Amino acid sequence: MEKFFKIAERGSTVGNEVIGGLTTFLAMAYIVAVNPSIMVAAGMDFTAALTATCFGAALMTFLMGVIANRPIALASGMGINAVVAYTLCLGDGVDWRVAMAVVFCEGIVILVLVLCGLRKAIMDAIPVSLRRAIGIGIGLFIAFIGLKGGGIVVPNESTYLSLGDLGSATAIVGVISIILAVVLQATHVKGGLIISIILATIIGIPLGVTSMPTEWNFGLDFSAFAAPFQTDPATGTMAIAQVFLQPALLLMVFSLLMSDFFDTMGTVVAVGSQANFVDKEGNVEDIQPILIVDSAAAAVGGFVGASSITSFVESTSGAAAGARTGLSNIVVAVLFLLCAFFAPIIGMVSTAATCGALVVVGYLMMTDVGEIDWTHIENAFPAFITIAGIPMTYSITDGIGFGFISYILIMLFCGRVKEIKPLMWVAALAFLIMFVLA
Fold first, then answer.
1. What is the pLDDT of residues 271-309, one digit of tens each?
2. Do 244 and 99 belong to one domain?
3. What percent of the chain clears pLDDT 90, i.e. is strictly above it?
4. What's the structural domain count of the chain?
């Protein structure tokens, strides 16, 4: 095990990897309940969606651990699953099998781009300040997700956002989880983040925030597997054939491709900063295996009927808890498999209970802000717009797009075109097309 995962070489222990894996899993366990409910809206059976979600996440998280040996867990991506269900299926009337074929095609295309080296080349072309900014912006995004889930930040028609009702049960659990996470982190308690999640979950029981299981479902349903190659009931043809017969679906493949491409880039940099496999220039060590597994995951997600499977930014919580190798992924994968049978228990972990862990991770990721040179606006402003854009648009992809385009424009008008690497032009143009078509 030591020889394969290089645990000691990376300054970790088996205990740290187990705790890190548990922390990552609890931080992203909500997907076990959320994704199936979204897929039901798309027309899928709940048990089939649950089986696909758990098995897809377990398989790709395991492969990331053994192939890339990095603590990056994967599962069905929030955002893309909503697009699949509410835009493609409910909005456009596309059958869920055809929607999964769109996801499958997007995954195949992005895998080809990785194997050709284009994805890595684009990452290498990004200026250091922007690489730093992506991780910082994601840190704010994670903290915002935590505060929102804890009921501490809520929507407001007049001011868009405002302070929530701190007397509500959800907010009370959220505040307690933050206090627990900060205190345990400050006192260097091993596994502090996972302890904060467990304690906050328990505290939420009498307050009615933690939902107790109402039924036990041990059944599995693999009927969603091979969805792209099943027959579309509306047309009587294979689902994947519909993608190539409808231009609108091909445009959706491009849209999902952009989201997957740059969300992963940001997530890998963010996790790498916490797990010490990103250098001072923002370069990710041995990134190619990570990108290969992540790209294949999108296609696998479409194949099993789980929507696009992607790297989860919540993996930063496990890295913050000590995970440094793929062994933590094995822990996460096993727990996802168990979830297929024990989803009601995992579903007890509320977003309020994970609030503190996510806020602390956001704080840890903000520490890189001093690494950006703020004295030169041509580099600092694109970094700023990226940092602000990610949480304000609630989209990693959109925030990165704003940063890329602003960087190109500033360098262009400053007469420093020669400093722009060719692939930055390509990426910025792709973002511009995406924004126009949105």
1. 888 888 887 766 788 889 999 999 999 999 999 999 999
2. yes
3. 43
4. 2
Give a yes or no: residue 131 inside a domain: yes
Q: Does residue 239 lie within any of the structural domains?
A: yes
**Do 309 and 389 fall within a single domain?**
no
Cα separation of 267 and 280, whole Å? Answer: 17
Query: Per-residue pLDDT for 346 more than 80?
Result: no
Say which residues have a Cβ less than 8 Å from residue 168's Cβ, sequence separation at least 6. Answer: 151
Q: For residue 278, what are the β-bridge partners?
A: 284
Report residue 242 as tokens. 């519909």
Residues 383 and 304 in one domain: no
The residues near 247 (Cβ < 8 Å, ≥ 6 apart) are none
Residues 222 and 130 in one domain: yes
Pairing of strands 153-156, 74-76: unpaired
Domain stops at, among 349, 376, 410: 349
Residues 386, 241 share a domain: no
**Per-residue pLDDT at 162:** 94
Average pLDDT over residues 176-199: 87
CA 302 – CA 121 distance, rounded (Å): 26
Residues in the chain: 438
DSSP readout, 286-338?
A: THHHHHHHHHHHHHHHHHHTS--EEE-TTHHHHHHTT--STHHHHHHHHHHHH
CA 336 to chain centre: 16
Phi and psi at residue 124, in whole multiples of 5°?
-70, -25
Same domain, 267 and 218: yes
Residues 78 and 38 reside in one and the same domain:
yes
Each residue of 48-93: pLDDT tens digit?
898 999 999 999 999 999 999 999 999 998 767 877 887 788 877 8
264 within a domain of the structure (yes/no): yes
Query: Which phi and psi (to 5°) does residue 125 adopt?
Result: -85, -10
In this structure, the answer to whether residues 396 and 303 fall within a common structural domain is: no
Return the pLDDT at 218. Answer: 65
* Nearest alpha carbon to residue 320 among 8, 4, 19, 65: 19
**Which residue, of 286, 318, 349, is where some domain finishes?**
349
Residue 438: per-residue pLDDT: 65
Alpha carbon 114 to chain centroid distance? 19
What's CA 121's distance to the chain center, in Å? Answer: 22
* Whether the model pTM is above 0.85: no
Per the domain annotation, does 257 fall within a domain?
yes
What is the distance between the alpha carbons of residues 428 and 403, in angstroms, rounded to a whole number? 9
Q: Which domain holds residue 103?
A: 2-137+214-349
